[in-house]
Amino acid sequence: MSQGRLTFNAVTLMRNGALEGLGLAHLPEDLVEADIRQGRLVRVLADWCPLRPGYHLYYPSRRQPSPAFALVVDALRHRA
């Protein structure tokens, strides 16, 4: 039997889905801290989600980055 699966490409849609009870969502804490504080959402697997301060960039490694993007990545890399 196949199980239904929802996939979102925006954190606001993921948050809305979690608020509607559609499942778990891995979201930035600042986006959901009020929901957690007010009991609309519950943190799960806290031991498996250590805080990682700083910037995180995800981009395709197979493409040649633009010069402007390369400068941003380089500046953020040396800032940490």
Written account of the structure:
This protein has one domain (11-79). By secondary structure, it is mostly helical. It has helices at 11-19, 29-37, 67-79. 39% of the residues lie in helices and 0% in strands. It is extended, with a radius of gyration of 17 Å. The model has no long low-confidence stretch (mean pLDDT 85). The protein is built from 3 helices and no strands.
In short:
The chain is an all-alpha fold. The protein has helices at 11-19, 29-37, 67-79.
Which tags fit this structure?
80 residues; mainly alpha; extended
The major pleated sheet works out as:
none
Shape: extended
Helix content: 25-40%
The rounded Rg comes to 17 Å
Oligomeric description of these chains? single chain
The pLDDT mean sits at 85
Secondary structural class:
mainly alpha
Hey, roughly how much beta strand do the residues contain? Answer: under 5%
Q: Kindly, what is the distance between the CA atoms of the first and last residues, rounded to a whole number of angstroms?
A: 47 Å
Given the structure, what is the number of helices? Answer: 3
Low-confidence stretches: none
Order of helices and strands: HHH
The total of beta strands comes to 0
Number of self-contained structural domains: 1
